[in-house]
Amino acid sequence: xxxxxxxxxxxxxxxxxxxxxxxxxxxxxxxxxxxxxxxxxxxxxxxxxxxxxxxxxxxxxxxxxxxxxxxxxxxxxxxxxxxxxxxxxxxxxxxxxxxxxxxxxxxxxxxxxxxxxxxxxxxxxxxxxxxxxxxxxxxxxxxxxxxxxxxxxxxxxxxxxxxxxxxxxxxxxxxxxxxxxxxxxxxxxxxxxxxxxxxxxxxxxxxxxxxxxxxxxxxxxxxxxxxxxxxxxxxxxxxxxxxxxxxxxxxxxxxxxxxxxxxxxxxxxxxxxxxxxxxxxxxxxxxxxxxxxxxxxxxxxxxxxxxxxxxxxxxxxxxxxxxxxxxxxxxxxxxxx
Length: 337
What we know:
By secondary structure, the protein is an alpha+beta fold. The chain has helices at residues 63-67, 95-102, 141-155, 231-239, 277-289, 331-336, and strands at 14-17, 20-23, 38-41, 46-49, 55-57, 69-76, 79-85, 112-118, 125-131, 136-137, 159-164, 167-174, 177-181, 210-213, 217-222, 249-255, 261-267, 271-273, 297-301, 304-311, 314-318, 322-329. The chain has three domains: 14-60, no CATH class; 63-181 and 322-331, Diaminopimelate Epimerase, Chain A, domain 1; 210-312, Diaminopimelate Epimerase, Chain A, domain 1, CATH 3.10.310. Helices cover 17% and strands 36% of the residues. The chain is globular, with a radius of gyration of 20 Å.
């Protein structure tokens, strides 16, 4: 497939994805020739929407973007992130750079990377998420909470709106934690998406899991003892099951007698993590759909506790976050990727 764009005097960049060669960043106008899928354009980036994974094409990079790229390291319940504040900057991110930064020996290391961009409408900011394997993620609940708390503390505001691939999300202070509305769950097979029409409450797979979409696909297993599950083995085996054309996150959950939930998670594109916000939301929704819980629920993940509440306006999620340290990527590191 080849794509053509036209604007005089703008440098051509080339990014090659899975059987896709995309030429250039050309501002706000974009033309497509042939192929399937679609493009949409935001002021800072062009996104290729195509299954099984979207590819993000970086815009033209200035010398300033390479010489001085600060980052923040944050975590929510041990689910750790590198956060880049790209407001006023051109994005330098690519699958290769995401993998390099995510390398815990030669980079910084993260479960997910989040880029902050200036909002363009009702949203205060826009967030774009990357996995450690260089793929993109449509949602990351703990990163959304972490960034929201950081920005709300800095501004002194009581609430804010955040645009992600999921849509417009709300974040508000409630007591001493930030509560984020992760939006309505996706419960129909095509929207999650699944490969064929099946009952999402009882998937035709061993273990009778539940499928839920939270901007990314989730496969939730209810088990007698989540602690006894070999998450590395079972999660890796299920991540790429043919029923999930975009692969899936995998949760293993036990509902305790007191109504709380113990959950462990295998994240798509990353592996075992100490917590997963969208996975916690999906598990809370699955438990309520199965009649195992009713109303707000406390959930224990490997990294600690959070509270989930599936309300009429979406799934709300609250829990602690931490801004650990700040740093700056060297030009040498960026140019060697």
